[in-house]
Amino acid sequence: PAPQHPFALLDLDTLIDDEEKAIRDVVRQYVDDRIKPEVGDWFETGSIPAKELAQEMGALGLLGMHLEGYGCAGTSATAYGLACLELEAGDSGIRSLVSVQGSLAMYAIHAFGSEEQKTEWLPRMAAGEAIGCFGLTEPDFGSNPSGMRTAAKRDGDDWVLNGTKMWITNGTVADVAVVWAQTDGGIRGFVVPTSTPGFTAREIHKKLSLRASVTAELILEDVRLPASAVLPDVKGLRGPLSCLNEARFGIAFGTIGAARDCLETAISYSIDREQFDRPIAGFQLTQKKLADMALELDKGYLLALHLGRLKDKHVIRPEQISVGKLNNAREALAIARECRSILGGNGITLEYPIIRHMNNLESVFTYEGTNEMHTLVVGEALTGLAAYRG
Ligand code: FAD
């Protein structure tokens, strides 16, 4: 019999409708034509044409695509998830660019911004003419952002921001930063044009993961903003955490894309590669690896689709998104490592996508809430006991 694609094993295409398939196919084509041929080089050199890519993906309607109005495409959450899946089949860094733009920066402005902030930024961000970043993490506060030191103080009507943000995706290419800071009234979000005096972004070098993605440190030194810069409609950690839920939802899908690309590569390689006078795919040990990975891939995809349907019905809960992020990032990483072994020596070069996905997934395992933090969210949901603090 002819080899079947892992998704065909369970006829998983029957779970998505024609419009979702059409969106998926457009993104897959873009990734095949534009991203896959070049991303190995971008990863190797640690540089991407971020502005160009943002404009191209804006023209395709991929930026803030599940948001309504202000030039956004207004698709279903599931369609957005499928787009993330296809983008991450290209590279987790490209999906990160889109996630940070749409689910973090644009979502924050869309959900909590003033009418003036929305009309100023969202149409340009949807078109990819302006890039956004999202500054929550600090050098000393990652998993526990409630301790953040970045502070915004009033000076007359103005706000003055001081502090440092760390690991900020899109940082040096951003036109606008959504920055979270402590105020006398708790944590608030600020819309900061990156051209404001006192704002500096420094790229983080020597990364061995997400190399086809810009990661930066943001330094805010007496950044003076008008009263209108604060996001008016949210106070406290609920603001950044609801943005993170949006992005984590996309990661539950995206990681399946990276894993799918690894498994497709490993299956075709193992069919072509001969040792001991037969394809290595014909050995039972290889088949066990492939079968186990196809099971996890398909289960992860089913989980992501289920979350998509819950989100489209507006009934999804944060711990459900944690289940998706925790499971799919973990299993995608395990799949990438196993696929790497099937390629033998060839598995360690950028000639094949697997080790790039594998290294990228180490970041995805950690960002947007670490594997451990999501485990604790699920643990709390199951027991009613929060175990974050001693
Ligand atoms: P820590 O919080 O110091 O954690 C270290 C380890 O301790 C982890 O294993 C963690 O799970 C564990 N740990 C911590 N607390 C507990 C506990 N209570 N119980 C058990 N274990 C615990 N942030 C942004 O704001 N914007 C971005 O755009 C962004 N992009 C990123 C891009 C990349 C490539 C990377 C690597 C990170 C990015 N981040 C971003 C930051 C990311 O969200 C943080 O790295 C993450 O939240 C973890 O924080 P930390 O690195 O400080 O690790």
From TrEMBL:
Co-factor requirement: FAD
Family per similarity comment: Belongs to the acyl-CoA dehydrogenase family.
Classification via InterPro entries: Acyl-CoA_Oxase/DH_mid-dom, Acyl-CoA_Oxase/DH_mid-dom_sf, AcylCo_DH-like_C, AcylCo_DH/oxidase_C, AcylCoA_DH/ox_N, AcylCoA_DH/ox_N_sf, AcylCoA_DH/oxidase_NM_dom_sf, Glutaryl-CoA_DH_mitochondrial
Name of the protein in its database record: Acyl-CoA dehydrogenase family protein
All copies of domain Acyl-CoA dehydrogenase/oxidase N-terminal, residue ranges: 18-129
Pfam families reported in the protein's UniProt record: Acyl-CoA_dh_1, Acyl-CoA_dh_M, Acyl-CoA_dh_N
Originating species: Longivirga aurantiaca
Signal peptide positions (record): none
Acyl-CoA dehydrogenase/oxidase C-terminal domain span: 235-382
Source domain of life: Bacteria
Keywords: FAD, Flavoprotein, Oxidoreductase, Transit peptide
Keyword Flavoprotein (UniProt): yes
Positions of the Acyl-CoA oxidase/dehydrogenase middle domain: 133-223
Keyword Transit peptide attached: yes
